[in-house]
Amino acid sequence: MVNGTATGLLGVVLFARHGDRSEFFQDPLTYDPSETTLTPLGTVQENQLGHFLQDVYISADSSSHIDGIDFPVANVDQILVRADAAGEGATIVGSTAALLSGLFPPTSSFNITLANGTTVEGALGGFQFVPINTVDPDVDISLNSFTSCPNFDQHTLDFYNSPEFAAEATVAKPFLRAAKPFLGGRSINFTNMFNIFDFINVNDIHNATFHQELPPTFRAQAYGFANFHENGVFTDVIPDGIGNIAFRTILPSVFSALMDIANTSSPLKFALNGISYKPFISFFNLTGASVNNQPLFGIVDYASALALEVHAGKLEPFITVRFKNGSTDSTFHPVTLNRFGADTMRVPLDEFISTLAPDAINSTAQWCTACAQTVLRGCAACSAAKTWSLLLWEQVSRSLCRKKRRLL
C-alpha cells in the first residue's frame, strides 16, 4: 500500500554484475570458486554504469527521475547497498564501490562545518563513501545460495547427463578440438565450458599475443556454448525448482525493498545489489523475461544492470523492469515478463509479490532443507535447533500421555 500522494517513479531495486576481472575458475560440478581480482578496466566499466544510472534515475531532466531522491550528496537513508562477498566477493564489492562513485560522484557539497567555523570538504575532492553491506555467504545465503548445496549439485549433474547436454556437446566438439591449442592445457570436456569461455574471454581482452592469434570467431563461439551451459545449470523447468535457487533466495529481500519503496513513509528509494551473473539467469527464467520478443538467458556481460522500477500508479503501485547488457550496451531495454501474461510489461506490485512468493526461500533453515545440507553455512545450528525442538515435543507428548493414562 502506498501512503501519501506521490506520483511517478518511487524508486528502484537494481542488480549489477561486477566489472572486468582476472581469470576465474569454478568447479563445474560444485561451482566452488577460485580467487579473482577486479581490473582497472572493471572499475571504469562500473563507474560508467554509475554515471549512466545517475542520468536515468537521479538527473532532474530525466523522464524516469526518482521522486525525491537527494543529489549531489547521497542521503544514506534513501539508499540500501548489498554486495555478494562470496567467491568473486572482492571483485563484486570493489565493483559496487566503483558503481557508487559514478552514481554519487565526488562533490564539494559533501562537507561539514565544525564548531569553530571551519568547513571541511570530504577526502579526495568530496568523495562520498556510501556504505556497502557485504554479504558473508556463511552468515547470509541470500546472494550466493548455489554452493555447498547438494541438491543443486545433483541438479547440475542431471543436466550434464541429459540428452540435451549430450547433443550440444556433440555440436561443440569440433570447436573444442580446434580451440585446444589456445587453452593452456585446460580440459576440453564440455562440462568445463564456462572455464573455457572465461579463459578465452579474459585473455582476448588482456593478452595482446593471444588476441592476435585467436581465430576471430572463437570468442563468440565459446560464449554461445557457455551460455547454453550456464543457462542449463541455473534454471529449472518449474519455478520453485532447485535450478532457480540463485534468485529464489534473493526474492525475500526484493519483496522487502519493493514494499519499502512503495510505502512513501519509508525513506528507501534505491536498493543496489552487487552480484555475479548467476542470479540474472535464474531471474530471467523465473519471470519469463524477454526483450523485443527474444528470451533473456545465459551469461550477462560485465557491468550489466537489471532494474525493478516501482511506480506509484493511479490506483496501486506497479512494477516495470529494464535490462542493460554490459558496458557496450548503450541503453536500458524494457523487459517483458511473460510469466505474468504474454507481452506483460507492467505488473501490479501485489501481483508481482504474490506470484513469486511461493518460489522464495525465506530463511537459512529453508535453504538447508531445499539443499539437503545439514552441516555447512549455518545448517548444523538449524539441525541442532530442529533436533532440540523434536526432543522437547517428545517430552511434552510423553508427559501428556502419562497424564491421560492416570485419568483413565
Structure characterization notes:
The chain has 408 residues and is α+β, with helices and mostly antiparallel strands. Helix content is 42%, strand content 13%. The protein is built from 14 helices and 13 strands. It has helices spanning 40-58, 89-103, 123-126, 150-160, 163-179, 193-206, 208-213, 218-233, 245-248, 251-262, 278-287, 349-356, 364-371, 379-407; strands spanning 9-17, 79-84, 111-113, 119-121, 133-135, 270-275, 289-291, 294-295, 305-311, 318-324, 333-334, 336-337, 347-348. The strands form 3 sheets. Strands 1, 2, 5, 6, 9, 10, 11 and 13 form an 8-stranded mixed beta sheet that branches. The protein is globular. Residues 1-6, 387-392 and 403-408 have low confidence and may be disordered. It comes from Vararia minispora EC-137.
Sheet-strand content, in percent, reads 5-15%
Gross morphology is globular
Q: How does the major sheet shape up?
A: 8 strands, mixed
CATH superfamily of the largest domain: Phosphoglycerate mutase-like
Query: What is the annotated CATH architecture of the largest domain?
Result: 3-Layer(aba) Sandwich
Brief summary:
The protein is of the alpha+beta class. It has 14 helices and 13 strands. The protein has two domains: 263 residues, Phosphoglycerate mutase-like (Rossmann fold), CATH 3.40.50; 44 residues.
Fold topology:
Layout (H helix, E strand, L loop, with lengths): L8 E9 L22 H19 L20 E6 L4 H15 L7 E3 L5 E3 L1 H4 L6 E3 L14 H11 L2 H17 L13 H14 L1 H6 L4 H16 L11 H4 L2 H12 L7 E6 L2 H10 L1 E3 L2 E2 L9 E7 L6 E7 L8 E2 L1 E2 L9 E2 H8 L7 H8 L7 H29 L1
Parallel strand pairs: 1-6, 2-5, 2-6
Antiparallel strand pairs: 1-9, 3-4, 7-8, 7-12, 9-10, 10-11, 10-13
Helix pairs in contact: 1-2, 5-8, 6-8
